[in-house]
Amino acid sequence: MAGIAPPPTTDEAAKTGPEPLLGRGMLLLFIALIGCFTAWGVAQDLTTPMVAGFKRIFEMSTFQASLVQLAYFGAYFLLALPAAVINQRFGYKTGILTGLGLAAIGAFAFYPASKIMTYEAFLVALFAMAAGCSILETSANPYVLSLGAESTATRRLNLAQAFNPVGTNIGVLLASTLILPKLSDPVDISSLSPAELHTIRAGELGAVMGPYLGLAFVLVLIAVAIASQKAPPIVEEFPDAEPHQGGTRGLFQVLWRHKRYRYGVVAQFFNVAAQVCAWTYLIQYVQQALGGSLEKGGFFLQLSLLVFLFSRFLMTWLIGRIRATKVLAVLAALAVVLCVFAMLSPTMAGVLAVVGLSFCLSLMFPTIYGVALKGLGPATKFGAAGLVMAIVGGAIMPLVQGALVDATSAAVSFIVPAVCFVFVGLYALYDLRTAPGPGRTA
Questions:
Q1: Residue 189 and residue 46 in one domain
Q2: In this structure, is residue 240 part of a structural domain?
Q3: Rounded CA gap, 205 and 149, in Å?
Q4: Residues 219, 329 share a domain
Q5: Is it the case that residue 232 has pLDDT exceeding 80?
Q6: The dihedral sign for the CA sequence 189, 194, 200, 201
Q7: Angle of helix 393-407 versus helix 259-280 axis, rounded to 10
Q8: pTM of the model
């Protein structure tokens, strides 16, 4: 896989103790990369309330407003492979800087969009920002793996990914304090003159614009910080396979031959699907179980995100002592149990079970990512793109669960994430069946 550190010197090999988490001189670069993980968390959760926001501002249907999520997930899916090409030709650092630049341009584009005052202008800005985030995520995850020894790669990625929910919580906070409260109460637009309606919409769109402009400036600062740091030496070899032949086609053949990678893409699809399902339908579940309002559901969603945040740091510590896929298997099994319990008991206990799913989810994305990329050598860059494209699971499976909610109830619909967690657990068991090798966390 990419990121195999140079062999230690004789003096270094003689030292006892665990392998250091980072390579020598990589701390400042790692901190700058953590900023990337935080930033795309902010971008994603600033976007979530925009469905309701644009529906209110532009007086449109829920389907039309949902194009916000389609633009976001669509950009992730479409830009992952171009990002791999950039990484392949110019390296991860160039890919990261390209992603930061494009995401910043998209965020800055919210300003002219707020002046144009059309829904399509905001979708273009959002697509550009999400496209940058797609390139950024495709590049940053494997780049983090390269900042030290292969044996600590999965733990290092878990630590960096722990800061993604920090951004998620910041995004939710910004949306709840700077955007949603400034959207005026519904009014009878037939009673307003065109000038009055224009003034109201301009103010509402200005509220949408502000946080994105702030994010744009942060992205530029992160890009400057990364550009000023020296890139680590990256050695790409095939510890588990023969070198490829045939250029890009040969790289795809390498990916297809590696069952751990193929199954990892499937597992990542279902992992992201389970995450989006659990968080999207938590509010409806709370309303069924407790008869609560949207505000009460929002409280439990925020609690769920906080559980996810703190669990990420806990899991980073834990997999330094226990093999990561052992923990992954246990958490996947626990998640299935929690889903079944929530289905059978739509009460406060069921609500807490759904919140507890975030504890299980905290380990999954970076662990699947790190394990799936093992042994890919030069194919790692395209392998990373496939794992990012698997995020499309977050757009597909919630539609299935939504249809089930309409047909049955929010509680029964949690059979969908339960099935998704089964696939994640099977992937963990598959990895555990293979013989331990270099780079496995034991």
A1: yes
A2: no
A3: 47
A4: no
A5: no
A6: positive
A7: 50
A8: 0.73
